[in-house]
Amino acid sequence: MPDPAAALKGGFGPQWLGARLRALLPAYPRLRLCVAFSGGADSSALLAALAPLARRPLAVRALHIDHGLSPNASAWAAHCRRIARSLGVPLTVCRVEVVRARGASLEAAARAARYAAFAAALAPGEALLTAHHEDDQLETVLLQLLRGAGVAGLAAMPEVAACGHGLLVRPLLRTPREQLVAWLRGAGIDWVEDESNAQLRLDRNYLRGRVLPPLRARWPAAGATVARAARHAAEAQQVLDSVGAADAGRAAVGALLSAKVLRTLPPERRRNALRYWIGAGGFQVPPTSLLRELAGPLLAARPDSQPCVAWEGVIVQRQADLLSLRAAPAGAPGASPPGGTAWRWREARTCRLPPPLGRLRVSADARGPLDLDALAPLLSVRVRRGGERLRPVRGGPRRTLKGLLQEARVPPAQRACLPLVYAGDTLVAVAGLWLDASVQAGAASPHRGRLSWSGAD
Q1: 119 and 356 in contact (C-beta within 8 Å)?
Q2: Does the pLDDT value for residue 26 go beyond 70?
Q3: What is the pLDDT of residues 43-67, one digit of tens each?
Q4: What would the DSSP string read from start to end of 225-253?
Q5: Last residue of a domain, which of 327, 352, 382?
Q6: Is 312 in the same domain as 363?
Q7: Starting from the edge strand earliest in sequence, which strands make up the sheet with 420-423, in order?
Q8: Exposed (0-12), middle (13-18) or buried (19+): which is 278, by Cβ within 10 Å?
Q9: Is 232 within the bounds of a domain?
């Protein structure tokens, strides 16, 4: 194989990459490096340019993730072994299982499995290098814009971030992909193409194949200018984090936050402080609608109401004047996957939920509104995620849960803690408030009952 270092002079190559790593990693070259190596053009260029540097006092290895999703997965792994062997870089192939939750995209599930494997594989202080480049950053910023992201989303991918026991480093974010491909071709190194890249049903592929070519034809420097805008957004986010840290610090009572102090802040500062507090606690920041609920109705609720807001894996609860933040216990609807917490109500009439979510109970009642024969034996209990609908009146229209809650004047801070009962994908009950027409008892129903809900015990 030709020497990659001599393939092209100037621009991208080992010397350029070494300088970039010195700028990003103060400890370079006195640290171990691991390359996320898919076998595609981008990671092949990164690994091949890094390999000559490993001949100096630099420890380099490669890690290939086999998702098992493509019929070509075994061939890709074999290709990666061949390339790594020719470069003199040790390679580990890690096979992962991609678990796709309902509602999640396959690519998102694969990405989550991949980064979980990366984080687990890194040794303390080791740096994981990925081959994300300028074009990837452009795509990411545009996708975030289309999703209505805030400043943190528009900052897109940082050049250095924490990952497991080590660091995640993206040294190529300021390099166009065409430079990487040209360097590879000059070096005589081949690569594999993922057939899924041609599937335009995927948002990123559609953007790459249909949107970006005419955009670049009109604005050739779009990649560089949008990447610069992402760096500006990252700087702005650093300022927001500093303000959020200061505001959260003033409101801190140990690990808790004072609702009284938070209420003195303007709404946008209040939301920013809560966002910082949740993120600094190691938890996923909630969507905008729930963040507004935290910063508004939850703080304004009566001191004795103990309102809470829950989302995937997280619960924020207010008790008296203090806000607590904790992981939702295993089995809690807020912590469960979209399939919910299973409830075989015929075997256990009471479904006890972790505080402050209370408990649900099905009881026999000759005059009850629930048709026990129509209620599926296996139910799932979930919390609100938005867009839920049910038919509360026989023969009437399906209604949004949001509209029903507003009409019933249920306090917004309590809405996220209402348990929703599903039979398969059908919402059949909302706490003890509404039943779907599909499970409502009629005059001829021989077995009737009642679903009741108790709040925090």
Answers
A1: no
A2: yes
A3: 999 999 999 998 766 899 999 999 9
A4: HHHHHHHHHHHHHHHHHHHHHHHHHHHEE
A5: 327
A6: no
A7: 341-344, 378-382, 420-423, 426-430, 434-435
A8: buried
A9: no
The CB-based long-range contact list for 98-103 (8 Å cut-off, 24+ gap) reads 98/67, 98/68, 98/69, 101/337, 101/338, 101/339, 102/337, 102/338, 102/339, 103/338
Same domain for 15 and 160: yes
81 and 219 in a single domain? The answer is yes
Can you spell out the DSSP letters for 139-192?
HHHHHHHHTT--HHHHT-S-SEEEETTEEEE-TTTTS-HHHHHHHHHHHT----
Q: Which region, left, alpha or beta, applies to residue 351 given φ > 0 means left and ψ of -120 to 50 means alpha? A: beta
- Rounded CA separation 97/106 (Å): 12
Q: Which domain holds residue 129?
A: 4-226
Contact between 137 and 146 under an 8 Å Cβ cutoff? The reply is no
Domain count, the chain: 3
Burial pattern 279-300, b for ≥16 Cβ within 10 A else e, equals eeeebebbeeebbbbbbebbbe
352 and 322 co-located in one domain: no
For residues 204 and 292, state if they share a domain: no
What single DSSP character describes residue 343?
E
Q: What is the pLDDT of residues 280-293, one digit of tens each?
A: 988 889 888 889 98
Whether 238 is in a domain gets the answer no
Condensed to tens digits (0 to 9), the pLDDT of residues 184-212 reads: 999 999 999 988 888 888 889 999 999 99
Q: Are residues 410 and 273 in the same domain?
A: no
Check whether residue 321 and residue 345 sit in a common domain: no
Tell me how far apart the terminal alpha carbons of the chain are, to the nearest angstrom: 70
Answer left, alpha or beta for residue 386, where phi above 0 means left and psi between -120 and 50 means alpha: left
Burial class for 182, CB neighbours closer than 10 Å (0-12, 13-18, 19+): middle
Q: Which of 343, 334, 426 is CA-nearest to residue 389?
A: 426
What are the residues facing 211 on neighbouring strands? none
CATH code of residue 37: 3.40.50.620
What does each C-alpha distance from 429 to 67, 363, 433 come to in angstroms? 38, 14, 8
Domain identity same for 316 and 414: no
**Residue 312: CATH number of its domain:** 3.30.465.60
Residue 14 CB coordination number (10 Å): 20
